[in-house]
Specification:
Blueprint (H helix, E strand, L loop, with lengths): L4 E3 L1 H11 L11 H19 L5 E3 L2 E9 L7 E7 L5 E8 L7
Parallel strand pairs: 1-5
Antiparallel strand pairs: 2-3, 3-4, 4-5
Length: 102
């Protein structure tokens, strides 16, 4: 059975800090765009392939990360933890913002 995925409030804080609430002048997506377009697909990948993802810490198999390309962003890293109830919590995000011109 595929585990459920939920998002920690810190994830939203990091997402808002990187993308903001409005679309950028050079085609940068808003945080809402990311949540609606990218996150559903990436959450499924994390849920279905959690055990195959690289470990974030050598001695902690419950922390993993996904590096992926997206439809709206050139690259994103999402960090996640498998918690005691069997669900996966997304708690960190790092978006490659270097592809857009300044």
């Amino acid at each position: 059975m595929t585990p459920s995925v939920r998002v920690d409030p810190h994830f939203f804080f990091e997402l808002d800090a990187q993308l903001g609430e409005r679309r950028g002048p050079n085609g940068e997506p808003s945080a809402s765009d990311f949540l609606l377009v990218e996150l559903p697909t990436l959450s499924v990948v994390i849920a279905e392939r959690f055990d195959e993802l690289p470990a974030l810490y050598a001695d902690r198999d419950d922390y993993r990360y996904l590096v992926a390309t997206g439809l709206l962003v050139p690259a994103v890293t999402i960090t996640a933890q498998l918690v005691s109830d069997g669900s996966i919590v997304l708690f960190g995000i790092d978006i490659d913002l270097t592809a857009w011109p300044e």
